[in-house]
Amino acid sequence: MIKIGIIGGAGYTAGELIRVLGNHPEAEIDFVYSTSSAGKPVHEIHHDLYGETDLMFTSEINQNVDLMFLCLGHGKSKAFLENGSISSAVKIIDLSHDFRLAENSQFQDRKFIYGLPEFQKDAISTAGNIANPGCFATAIQLAILPLADAKLLNDDLHVHAITGSTGAGQSLSATTHFSWRNNNVSVYKAFTHQHLLEIGETVTTEQPGFDHAINFVPVRGNFTRGIFSTVYTKTDLSLNQLTELYKSFYDDTVFTHISEQPIHLKQIVNTNKCLLHLEKHGDKVLITSIIDNLVKGASGQAVHNMNLLFGLKENHGLQLKPILY
Ligand SMILES: NC(=O)c1ccc[n+]([C@@H]2O[C@H](COP(=O)([O-])OP(=O)(O)OC[C@H]3O[C@@H](n4cnc5c(N)ncnc54)[C@H](OP(=O)(O)O)[C@@H]3O)[C@@H](O)[C@H]2O)c1
């Protein structure tokens, strides 16, 4: 069994990680560290885990584990590793932005590999530490990776993506308050969202010299989970050629599928899947890409990375079914 520690236990991604790992045949949660909830049962904060686990939040960190997941906010993972003297024998999967970009990927004696399995599975399999991708970044990269890999991104990309409120974490804010969010939709960080940086690094690795704009308009949705994104760009390829390209690129991947039917969010919520759908309109391809922000966009992808790091079957613990109605 892989012995696991979870840091930032009271947050949304930690709760989702505990839920997914609870059904993993080769992983065992050793401790769930929490600054806010030490001493309380885990199910007192993560109510969906009532009856699922007797784990308690703790203020003690056991160094004698194989892997720690850091479920901390921006800047907090770096601070945690700076202050925590975690043994370099312990592998780290970090869910924050702190180590995703190449310029931040070396920290102390740790090298972090960007953990998007569809992009670099082999590098992940031999890594010591993983920087788990952002949720929007996951949905958008999976929408465009086959075109970038074939060096066929030849024009500006236009991206709209709408996210559920859990994407913002468990802290209450003006824009996650029920009265504001319910029955409401709004744009934020248009053209400037921080995930553009990691998307840009992947695209230029796959297609060196790419110098077109990625125009990204993120939208806050009035639902709790999921990301529904559309990307369109000009292409000379026919729909048949595009479908062939995408199917062949994702042929040996476990969680990304090309749907010939139009797709909708309920098909992927609670799963580690990404569904893609392609349409051709005149000289443009429209790619729809959908994921669960907390699973494929965070904790499920983190467990997928763990499976790769430890040489396990990729879908161990991740055979999750959505709820349609
Ligand atoms: N939510 C998503 O859909 C999503 C998707 C992809 C990536 N991510 C990234 O994953 C990380 C965790 O996200 P999340 O949604 O789980 O966040 P969250 O719900 O806000 O939880 C973060 C946890 O960090 C801990 N923490 C420790 N020190 C803290 C401090 N000084 N201030 C605030 N919190 C502190 C808290 O847990 P304790 O009280 O137990 O210590 C808190 O619950 C973030 O970096 C986020 O960007 C999130």
TrEMBL record:
<comment type="similarity">
    <text>Belongs to the NAGSA dehydrogenase family. Type 1 subfamily.</text>
</comment>
<dbReference type="Pfam" id="PF01118">
    <property type="entry name" value="Semialdhyde_dh"/>
</dbReference>
<keyword id="KW-0560">Oxidoreductase</keyword>
<feature type="active site">
    <location>
        <position position="135"/>
    </location>
</feature>
<dbReference type="InterPro" id="IPR058924">
    <property type="entry name" value="AGPR_dimerisation_dom"/>
</dbReference>
<feature type="domain" description="Semialdehyde dehydrogenase NAD-binding">
    <location>
        <begin position="3"/>
        <end position="127"/>
    </location>
</feature>
<keyword id="KW-0521">NADP</keyword>
<dbReference type="Pfam" id="PF22698">
    <property type="entry name" value="Semialdhyde_dhC_1"/>
</dbReference>
<comment type="function">
    <text>Catalyzes the NADPH-dependent reduction of N-acetyl-5-glutamyl phosphate to yield N-acetyl-L-glutamate 5-semialdehyde.</text>
</comment>
<keyword id="KW-0055">Arginine biosynthesis</keyword>
<keyword id="KW-0028">Amino-acid biosynthesis</keyword>
<keyword id="KW-0963">Cytoplasm</keyword>
<dbReference type="InterPro" id="IPR000534">
    <property type="entry name" value="Semialdehyde_DH_NAD-bd"/>
</dbReference>
<protein>
    <recommendedName>
        <fullName>N-acetyl-gamma-glutamyl-phosphate reductase</fullName>
        <ecNumber>1.2.1.38</ecNumber>
    </recommendedName>
</protein>
<dbReference type="InterPro" id="IPR023013">
    <property type="entry name" value="AGPR_AS"/>
</dbReference>
<comment type="pathway">
    <text>Amino-acid biosynthesis; L-arginine biosynthesis; N(2)-acetyl-L-ornithine from L-glutamate: step 3/4.</text>
</comment>
<dbReference type="InterPro" id="IPR036291">
    <property type="entry name" value="NAD(P)-bd_dom_sf"/>
</dbReference>
<dbReference type="GO" id="GO:0003942">
    <property type="term" value="F:N-acetyl-gamma-glutamyl-phosphate reductase activity"/>
</dbReference>
<dbReference type="InterPro" id="IPR000706">
    <property type="entry name" value="AGPR_type-1"/>
</dbReference>
<dbReference type="InterPro" id="IPR050085">
    <property type="entry name" value="AGPR"/>
</dbReference>
